[in-house]
Specification:
The complex is a heterodimer of chains A (about 240) and B (about 350). Chain A is α/β, with parallel strands linked by helices. Chain A has a single domain, classed as 3-Layer(aba) Sandwich (Rossmann fold), CATH 3.40.50. In chain A, about 35% of the residues lie in helices and about 15% in strands. In chain A, strands 2-1-3-4-6-5-7 form a seven-stranded mixed β-sheet, with helices on both faces. In chain A, strand 5, helix 7 and strand 6 form a beta-alpha-beta unit. In chain A, helix 1 packs across helix 7 and helix 3 crosses helix 4. Chain A starts with about 25 loop residues before the first helix and ends with a strand. Chain B has two domains: about 230 residues, Rossmann fold (3-Layer(aba) Sandwich), CATH 3.40.50.970; about 110 residues, Rossmann fold, CATH 3.40.50.920. Chain B has twelve helices and 15 strands. Chain B has a seven-stranded mixed β-sheet, with helices on both faces. Chain B is globular. Chain B starts with a strand and ends with a helix. Classes of the chains: A alpha/beta (about 240), B alpha/beta (about 350). At the A-B interface, strand 1, strand 2, helix 2 and helix 4 of A face helix 3, helix 4 and strand 9 of B.
Chain lengths: ~240, ~350
């Protein structure tokens, strides 16, 4: 009998530290499946962020580097420049990529570094206990916006993907979501495209993934998926941005 | 026959780094070290190396982190305010035990200070300027020739100990031109780097990290670092001693300051004064043993520490002397450099 579904070789068979209903586990698996399908496990070098996915290197079974908070794309830039034969990607959350690391993000994109970026947008800081992220929605209650985010005080949700899309050296940006099985399949397709682009030397490719954080959204895992569909998508519409 | 060239200190640092096998450089413009960056921009592409003008000092040092993680010989450079920004990355490099060389062509501070030569980043360099219990090896060249030569030593030490090495110069050294002899550019020491990130072909995956969350894991990692630092302290002290035998007064100075002090020592010795010089070459590890030897003598000299700062290396001299001899101080900072006249006046007052 032909085996058509199994545990990805690039994913370590272990329990993760993620909360129930968290999207990171799904996103990690999608990356691992893509790496296996493209047969690039022995060429891949991942750069893990600071945030909930800080120990992603405990879950992926290929070479990984840590990076200081926000600096993943500076670290990845150097790795790829020194070793262009490798496939280098960063995995970063919204705080990492779009707050403390905005400068590194914009300039790596503007240089057109031939990198793949997996960007997890869950509109919150999870690791530190549910503070406002740059992508937190207006009205969304967090530890640091107890009355909800107010535009006049905290500004608007930052659409970093749309901002990056205007840069001429950026080649591919797509926003996907993990809120349903269909959307998960689309997310995998986008991640694969971002890796294929690097293999083909196309240039800077980023996939923004809307990902549930039931714990700090104060919702059940099921409600969190619905919240993405009913609320988050209005601010962050899905599809190809560039 | 070795080649002889006329070159500035900043360019000699870059030239020396390239001859020591540096193939990745990232930097951000700041005076008075810009000639170094420009030299790298011109030469790196010619030899198949990589030059990146980073968007910030933070990006530059974290690029160095990435390049070092692949096993490449890598460097960044800056001057005082920029070095403050690099401290985050240096702490990570030390924690992840990556080899890298960082040049600081010091200028006046605090804050934006000015662009005149200074030595006021001594504490930052020798005491771990970033967070956490770590140390960087610190080398202090005193001439343009040493700016070139010390690069070979710096990259060798960085690889040997998997540790960041700081070259601590100053604006005077960076800007002045001197004739120097240069070598062939052959690597003297480059150990295998089986820990580097190259893709996990035919081996288990490698991870480069400084994060140890499990109970007891960080303490274990830190004890390993401390063990390494102890070995470095025992084996890597470097200094130049001048006229130390029978000296009743010993000046202690490093870098540019040591050159001025040397002039004073030679002039006063001609006049019959028993005076010598200790020039620390490694600021960390500080050359304690020479002080311990001298202060074990029956007749102990007076030490005069001279700095282009207000008593930073002074603390290391006092820690080395351990109260066994008198330690005096002369220092200026913020653009002021102690002159030969001021030094002679101070010596007469001792």
């Amino acid at each position: 009998m032909e085996k058509i579904f199994g545990h990805p070789k690039s994913l370590v068979d272990t329990k993760t530290h993620y909360c129930a209903g968290c999207g990171h586990g799904i996103a990690h698996r999608l990356v691992a499946e893509v790496v296996d399908e493209l047969d690039i496990r022995e060429r891949v070098i991942a750069v893990a962020p600071v945030g909930c996915a800080v120990v992603a290197y405990d879950y992926w079974d290929f070479d990984c580097s840590e990076a200081a908070h926000g600096r993943a794309l500076a670290v990845a830039t150097a790795i790829k420049r020194v070793r262009p034969q490798n496939i280098v990607f960063t995995y970063q959350g919204d705080g990492d990529l779009a707050a403390i690391g905005t400068n590194e993000t914009i300039h790596a994109a503007n240089r057109g570094e031939n990198l793949t970026v997996v960007f997890i947008n869950n509109a919150i800081y999870g690791m530190t206990g549910g503070q406002m992220a740059p992508t937190t929605l207006l009205g969304q209650k967090t530890a640091t916006t107890p009355k909800g985010r107010e535009a006049s005080l905290q500004g608007f949700p930052l659409k970093i993907s749309e901002m990056l899309a205007i840069l001429p050296a950026v080649k591919y940006i797509e926003r996907v979501s993990l809120h349903s099985p269909q959307e998960v399949l689309k997310a995998k397709k986008a991640i694969k495209q971002a890796f294929v682009n690097q293999i083909d030397n196309v240039g800077f490719s980023l996939v923004e993934i809307l990902s549930p954080c039931p714990t700090y959204w104060g919702l059940s895992p099921r409600q969190a998926l619905d919240w993405i569909r009913d609320v988050m998508l209005k601010e962050f519409p899905l599809g190809r941005i560039k | 026959m070795p080649k002889k060239i006329l070159i500035s200190g900043n360019e000699a640092l870059a030239y020396g780094a390239i001859h020591a096998g540096c193939r990745f450089y990232a930097g951000y413009p700041i005076t008075p070290q810009n000639e170094l960056t420009a030299y790298m921009a011109k030469c790196m592409p010619e030899i198949g190396g990589i030059f990146i003008q980073a968007e910030s000092e933070l990006a530059a040092i974290n690029m160095v982190f990435g390049a070092a993680a692949t096993g490449a010989r890598t460097m960044t450079s800056s001057s005082s305010p920029g070095m403050s920004l690099k401290q985050e990355g240096i702490s990570y490099i030390a924690g992840a035990e990556l080899p890298a060389v960082i040049v600081n062509v010091m200028r006046g501070g605090p804050g934006l200070g000015n662009i005149a030569p200074a030595q006021s980043d001594y504490f930052q360099a020798t005491r771990s300027g970033g967070h956490g219990d770590y140390r960087c090896l610190v080398l202090a060249p005193s001439s343009v020739q040493e700016a070139y030569d010390f690069m070979q030593i710096a990259f060798g030490l960085a690889d040997k100990y998997r540790n960041p090495v700081i070259i601590l110069g100053d604006g005077m050294l960076g800007q002045m031109m001197e004739p120097i002899e240069v070598g062939s550019g052959k690597l003297k020491y480059s150990p295998p780097k089986d820990w580097a990130l190259t893709g996990c072909k035919n081996r288990k995956p490698n991870v480069v990290k400084s994060f140890f969350l499990k109970e007891g894991a960080l303490e274990e990692a830190n004890l390993k670092l401390q063990k390494k630092y102890k070995i470095i302290q025992n084996k890597e002290e470097r200094y130049e001693g001048d006229s130390l035998a029978g000296a009743e007064t010993i000046i202690v100075a490093y870098g540019t300051m040591a050159r001025i002090a040397k002039g004073v020592v030679h002039e006063l010795r001609k006049k019959g004064k028993k005076i010598g010089l200790i020039r620390p070459i490694t600021l960390w590890p500080f050359p304690r043993k020479v002080f311990q030897g001298i202060t074990a003598r029956k007749k102990r000299p007076v030490f005069l520490v001279i700095e282009m700062s207000y008593g930073q290396m002074l603390e290391d001299v006092k820690l080395s002397v351990e109260g066994r001899a008198r330690v005096e101080f002369l220092g200026r900072s913020g653009g002021g450099i102690p002159t030969e006249e001021e030094i002679i006046k101070k010596i007469k007052s001792l």
